Amino acid sequence: MLIHLNGALVSAAEARVDPADRGLTLGDGLFETIRARGGRPLRLAAHCARLRAGADVLDLPVPVSDEALGRALEETLEANAVTDGVLRLTLTRGPGPRGLLPPPQPRPTLLITAAAAEASSPSPIRAVIATKTRRNEHSPLSRCKCINYLDNILARLEAAKRGADDALLLNTAGRLAGTTMANLFLVIDGVVVTPPVADGALPGVIRAEVLAAAGAEERSLKPEDLASASEAFITNCLGIRAVVSVDGAPIGDGRPGPVFEKFRAIP
Amino acid sequence: MLIHLNGALVSAAEARVDPADRGLTLGDGLFETIRARGGRPLRLAAHCARLRAGADVLDLPVPVSDEALGRALEETLEANAVTDGVLRLTLTRGPGPRGLLPPPQPRPTLLITAAAAEASSPSPIRAVIATKTRRNEHSPLSRCKCINYLDNILARLEAAKRGADDALLLNTAGRLAGTTMANLFLVIDGVVVTPPVADGALPGVIRAEVLAAAGAEERSLKPEDLASASEAFITNCLGIRAVVSVDGAPIGDGRPGPVFEKFRAIP
Q1: Chain A: residue nearest B136 by CA?
Q2: Do B97 and B38 fall within a single domain?
Q3: ipTM score assigned to the predicted complex
Q4: CA-based angle B4:B203:B211, to the nearest 5?
Q5: Residue A265 in 3-state DSSP?
Q6: Of A47, A82, A199, B39, which residue is 20 to 30 A from B235 by alpha carbon distance?
Q7: Is residue A133 domain-shared with residue A111, that is, in the same domain?
């Protein structure tokens, strides 16, 4: 496997990240997961826009243009003979001395990996509501795809222990925010709804497309709203999947519904 | 400089962290900052206990015994000819494939660096209250020294922009939780008080010692309480420093006070 590291393709087995990289020591960075088809990254402009919005929040310079990013992503696909797959782009603030304050002239680390698409897995999801942690809607990081993913990891581990496929995260006010790796949509009284970004929902790229395509509405949602949903589904760049139960209680009739079927092909 | 990486001392310039390390890609790890004197790590048992408590929360195996950790820390000091200094220990879940769920048999990364102590800097601190983010007391991570440090970095950047030395973080309920890198103590009506861990305070090693030595009390604190404090100071393993103003308003008479002077030598 070859990876793109700071502008060059290198063997993954030999690629070296500096142990002083602030991504590793402080979680000081961002990432994007990008679907690729036909050897090209999909929705490049939307991913670049989110990356730059996150970099603004972090005061982190993005060392390359969107065009150069696009080329690096394509080169990574080509070097690994991946046409249909998934790209992961990681941007950290690079190495730094001890302490929280970034160096005045950071040398960011830009890392891109590619993997072939897994066998398409449209299997419906049985979810739980995470009890061990909450998403912090009071932090601007809830609106950035940053590499501080431990709350999501804790919730995902809890889901696995409880025999579920994924976990829904509540925000600190007890509202639904999304799952550990996707945005959440419900269909309530025929209206497609999704938690607002202000409630801690990540501004997902596919979320935005489904919002537009479905004429959906951003609305604060409580766990009790799941009982009145006829459908639930989750979205990210890797796909749209139906949620058929939460904490053991079926959503609607416990099967993927017509709104899901209508939009499942978007990603 | 030599660093301790997975059991061996290697040149920092050559030490290689795998780009697939979950510490780098997901912030999946913990750290400790440990004061060293006379070539030995101080308060090793307390640091090991906190590391293991965090590892329990993360479901992360600690690959070595406390004794082996102590030896590795001493070797790192010796290899760098540091007797009086600071050690940083980072433990991540190691490399993993795509996705949040950890590999079933993780190979954790253990990284130790040493630096000589900076010229002792007991200078008093002018602080601000961070407005851009909040600490999430609803997450068990608020009680772990994990490498998801971006909220702290955002607050530290805000402090720098506002011409301050550090920032106090509020929790999501508006209570004082601590600073970006230290625990907070106030003296109110002659009583030494500090935010409880339930409010998002990190269970600091020096915090515990000051709590015991000062007969201090854990108490939820609001920003308004700063106005009635005769003193404020912050503690971490690198030292105890007086806070002489917050958001431009002096604490007490705006000078380091007698309680600070009594305990400043603890670390």
Answers
A1: A136
A2: yes
A3: 0.97
A4: 120
A5: coil
A6: B39
A7: no
